[in-house]
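Fig. S4 source data, part A: sequence.
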Amino acid sequence: MAVQVKGEVLTLKPVGEYFSMTVVAPGIAEQTRPGQFVAVSVGGQGGGMLLRRAFSIYSVRETGVYGGTVEFIFSVTGRGTAWLAAQRPYDPIDIVGPLGRPFALPREPANCVLVGGGYGSAPLFLLADALRTRGCRIDAVLGASTGDRLFGALDAKRMAASVAFTTDDGSYGEKGRVSDVLPEVIERVHADVVYACGPMAMLEAVQRVAGASYGGAGIPTQLSVEESMACGVGVCMTCVLPVVGGDDHTRMVRSCVDGPVFAGERIRWDALGTVPDDAIGADNK
């Protein structure tokens, strides 16, 4: 169960174009599973910013001198994240977690390809730890717009049997997108499953590649979506997207509680940002 913790900042450090924040959050660290996230209150008391900010969990430590800790990665994109970047060790911070549905793990050892875009790759490293404990082989593909916006390159080299890097401008690795090199990686390592986290356009491209693999037979995907989450607990309905259920009917589901991880083939990529006419509950008048 998710808990609300009145924690404190342990460390804050720049990581390339991003920031890494570690928060003392006992009760959250012990329950976290790969793919879950935290919702952080920003602005401080009287700051006027009511909505929490959601961040994927990069790493946890269940015990330590300060108790359980949670580390997440963020980029300064507005007032809320600018406030976070100005915090200092021992500053108080209000955090709720772990939230959301985690990645589904293989029951038997499998060949797993992990794909990340920008700092969206952060949750893949906790996932890699879990996969390794199950005897899985891990290969990775990481991409970003530029080399300084790649995240986790060194960690990826340590955790994976092979790593392919791509950047839009060619400043690091191959010039292009992760979807350009993914087909070769899947075929070369005989991948059984693809895990991915990053921008929605990237996830759609990953799903397209995975679905066309092995002569069109395809392989399963587990995709952590990056929809805007204002509350993180399923109340505000800002993060809905169309997903096909086990009964083959489309429903508008909440990314924060029904996700953020979904089977890629279940997402209605053709209808993102809309309510399809055939969705249950849609107004077809």
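Fig. S4 source data, part B ends here. The domain at 3-99 is CATH 2.40.30.10 (Elongation Factor Tu (Ef-tu); domain 3).
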